[in-house]
Putative membrane protein
Amino acid sequence: MELQRVRGHVPALTAVLTVVSLALVFGAVLGVIPSSSLPRAPASVFDAIPHVNAVVSTVAIGTILAGVRFIRRGDVEKHRAAMLTSLALFVIFLVLYLYKVTVSGTAEFGGPDAVYRFVYLPTLAIHMVLAIVCIPLLYYVLLLAVTRPVKELYDTSHKRLGRVAAALWLVSFALGNVVYVLLYWAY
């Protein structure tokens, strides 16, 4: 069985998935991935991506909070559904973000220098650090969850790390929305 093989290698698979994911993100942001490797969408699609991603992030905040609430009530199936929905939303966000950044680059902040230095950059930096820290935590708790029966999860670090991952994920999504507001609405 494939799940049995994965089950015995959760930390190693977490590391591999984390490295691949971060390589894609940094490759896109740093311009290492050639924009010519992807089809070019109309400008209206690129204009819509930040707004779509803000909606996706907001919905993900709701699904993460729902997942936390469900598990506190002991409803494992609803918790699993909410967290898998959150993961799917994160993947949608990431694919759209990576596509936009790879093809058209990052957005420039158009506000005053003081806001840039003391609000925008610190918010962006914290958002990015949390997003980077979340990636291995999310992979790890996800791999634990999909490779074990529920009753065995209680003997793993899924609960403890899941709490940390959910909290960091929520803050990262929320700060991402603050960055969005600063970039696309305030300035």
